[in-house]
Specification:
It comes from Streptomyces subrutilus. By secondary structure, this protein is of the alpha+beta class. The protein has twelve helices and 14 strands. The strands form three sheets. Strands 1, 2, 3, 8, 9, 10, 11, 12, 13 and 14 form a ten-stranded mixed sheet that branches. The protein has a two-stranded antiparallel sheet with strand order 4-7. The protein has a two-stranded antiparallel ribbon with strand order 5-6.
Amino acid sequence: MSRTILDVHILQTVPPSNLNRDDTGAPKSAVYGGVRRSRVSSQAWKRATRKAFDDLLDPAELGVRTKKVVEALTERIARLEPSLHADQVWPMAAELIQTATGAKIETPSRKPGGKDAKDGEAAERQAPQSSYLLFLSARQLDGLAALAIEGIGKGSEPKVFVKDKEVKAQAKQIAATRHSVDISLFGRMVADASDINVDAAAQVAHAISVHAVDMESDYFTAVDDQNSTAEPGAGMIGTIDFNSATLYRYAAVDVDLLTKNLDAGLLDGERTGEPVRRAVEAFIEGFTLSMPSGKANTFGNHTLPNAVIIKLRSSRPVSFVGAFEKPVVQQDTADGHVRAACKALADHIPAVEKAFDATADRTWVLRVGEHTADLAALGAEVDLRPLVTEVGEAVAERLGKRG
C-alpha cells in the first residue's frame, strides 16, 4: 500500500552556544562514529517547533499541555458563561477531566508566598491540578466546557453528573476526537487512559554535529555597580559550558497518520486535505526556523539553516545521518565544516537511494551560499516560501487523488 512520507533534512551551523543542557548544565552530547558529538535532544526541538506554531496557526487548531488543566477549562467556561464563578466551576471541571482522561485531579496545598510563606499564613485557594501534564486541544476544552455548563445548569452534583452513562461516554468521546495540529503531530500519552492516546505523526531525531566537538567553558565575572575604585574585584564569578557545531537535523512526518489523527471525530463533509496541508506547512516552517532557547540571552545564537532538503516518499522514512558516521574533517582550516558536510550528504543520498531502490517521488532543496553547491543536483532548488507552499500543495494533491 502506498504511503505519504515527508523527510526533512537540515544542515545548520550554530556558533558558541548551549542550546540544550544536561543535568550538570553542560551542552548535551553523544558518541557517534567513535567520537563525541554535540547533541540537541528531539524534545528540545519539538518544544521549539510547537511554540513556533503560535505564529503560524489559528489558536483553535492548537492545544495546551499543562497540569493546570482545570484552570484552563475554567477559562473556557468563563468565556461561554461569564456569570459562573470558581466555586461553581472547579468541582465540575475536575470531575469531567478525570472522567475524560482518567488523570488524578487534586487540589494543591501551596501558600501564596510558596516556600517563603510565613507559618500560620492561610493557604491561597487554587484550582485543582492533574498529577501529570495533560495535552488537550482547544476544541476538546471547548467541548468539555459546554458539557460542564450543562451539568452546572441542571444543578447536578459533579460526581453524580459524571456517573451518568451518556455523560461519561460524551466526555471520553470529546477527549478522543477533534485533535489539534500539535497533538496530531507530536502525539499524546495518557497513562491512565490508553484509549485516548494519540500516536505521533512526526518523528524528530536528536540533532548531532557532523564533526567531533570539544566542550569549552566560559569563565565570567560580574562587577558590582555600587563598588568604588577602592573596592576592586568581582561581585560574582562563574562558568558556562558551551560548544559550537554544524548540526544535522532530521524529522519525518507520516502524512497518512497525520490525516487519521486530524480526521478523528470530524463529519464526512469536513474530511478534506486542507487541515492536513496547513499542518504540514506549519511543521515545515516551524521546524526549519525554530531554535531551542537554551542560554540564548548569553550566546545570541540565532542562526538559520545552511541547507534544507525535503523528500516526498511513498514507502518509509529514510534518515541520511549515515553520511556523517565518519566525522567531517576540515580540508582547509579556512573552509569550515559546511562544504565538507554538503559533499558528504550529496554523495551519500544518491548511493543509498540507488542501493535500496528508495528514490523519492519529489525532492526540494533550499540552500544558502556557494559552500552548499554540491546539494544543488539533488532536487528542485527553491526558497523558503515556495518550499513550504509546494510541499503543502503536493501533499494535498496526493490526498485528493486518494479521495
